[in-house]
Amino acid sequence: MPLDGEYEPSPWDWVREQVAEYEASGGTRANTLRDTGLPVIILTTRGRHSGKIRKSPLMKVGGDGEWALIGSMGGAPTDPVWVHNLRADPSAAAVQDGPEPVDVVVREVSGAERQQWWDQAVAAFPPYAEYQAKTEREIPVFVATPAEGS
């Protein structure tokens, strides 16, 4: 079931603009992290307090029906807000990796599974290793898979 409700764009200009351009073009524009050429996806969550729809561009890790969502926030000492939203309701999420969003169910991974996805994430975006080195928290890793019926 698609996420519905009031969309509240990010207060960060670059996030708001990238999401708008990605969605308006069906994923054909604004589909890389700024000028890096590295692909991104759009993660949609429901705010755990506001109930509003939130959207975040994330590095694309995985694909073909399974994506890793890396809560790095550039190595900041706290998790990004979308991490808290997913922990509160892991079934209130969608991933857009191309023209249309797909409803997903998300689970946080740990142990060997986390390490496997983490290694894939660092291969896709090497700065993740630097981000982990500069923070004391373990950067959370989630795996998103299409919801039944998506």
* Structural domains: how many: 1
Give the helix level as a range of percent. Answer: 25-40%
- Average pLDDT number: 94
User: What is the architecture at the second tier of CATH?
Assistant: Roll
Q: Outline, from the CA principal axes?
A: globular
CATH topology: Pnp Oxidase, Chain A
Order of adjacent strands in the largest pleated sheet: 2-1-5-6-7-4-3
User: Would you identify the CATH H-level superfamily?
Assistant: Electron Transport, Fmn-binding Protein, Chain A
Number of strands: 7
Q: Which class do the helix and strand fractions yield?
A: alpha+beta
Question: How would you describe this structure to a colleague?
Answer:
With 150 residues, the chain is α+β, with helices and mostly antiparallel strands. The protein has one domain (13-145): Electron Transport, Fmn-binding Protein, Chain A (Pnp Oxidase, Chain A, Roll), CATH 2.30.110.10. It is 27% helix and 26% strand. The chain has 4 helices and 7 strands, in the order αββββαββααβ. It has helices at 13-24, 81-88, 111-124, 127-133, and strands at 40-46, 53-59, 62-63, 66-70, 93-96, 101-108, 141-146. A 7-stranded antiparallel β-sheet has the order 2-1-5-6-7-4-3, sandwiched between helices. The longest helix has 14 residues, at 111-124. The radius of gyration is 14 Å and the shape is globular. The model has no long low-confidence stretch (mean pLDDT 94).
